[in-house]
Amino acid sequence: MGDEKVKEEALQILGLFQALPRLVVFDLDYTLWPFYCECRSKREMPSLYPHARGILYALKEKNIDLAIASRSPAPDIAKTFLDKLELKSMFVAQEIFSSWTHKTEHFQRIHRRTGLPYESMLFFDDEDRNIEAVSKMGVTSILVGDGVTLGALRQGLTNFTGSSSSSSEKRKRK
Ligand SMILES: [Mg+2]
């Protein structure tokens, strides 16, 4: 499926939901692309998972902000690849640094930079421990198996809708 077709399908999926996230945050390695940056050279031309670009374009078209949260120990390679893939300008925040504290600090920085509440964010990552730590902050977090896909997008939006309606229920009850 080409990028345009994926984008079209992603837009259809987005159209099914009333409550959309304000910001979608992506991990890089094994979420947007199928490799670890530290195992590659800057001189190479990287490629994304097949659905990644179409999904990014669809979110952008819906005026949903995009950000990166990566614990890659090779941020220079990651940034070079984002540039080569012509994706650099798509993201309002790019937090790429290695850390022992999962991705808590990455999200604190994204929150400070954007001013958006954690509850308005949706996050995709391929590592359990990142998902666990970031969901505790209030971010709807989705574990991806083989990179971000249209199926993962649908799952993410379903979970986001569920958690935003339950938090508005909570507010109503107060
Ligand atoms: Mg990863």
From TrEMBL:
InterPro entries with a match to the protein in the record: HAD-like_sf (IPR036412), HAD_sf (IPR023214), HAD_SF_ppase_IIIC (IPR010033), MDP-1_euk (IPR035679), MDP_1_eu_arc (IPR010036)
Gene Ontology terms, MF aspect: acid phosphatase activity
CDD domains in the record: HAD_MDP-1_like (cd07501)
NCBIfam families named in the record: HAD-SF-IIIC
Stated name of the protein: Magnesium-dependent phosphatase 1
Native source organism of the sequence: Stephania yunnanensis
Source species taxonomy: Eukaryota, Viridiplantae, Streptophyta, Embryophyta, Tracheophyta
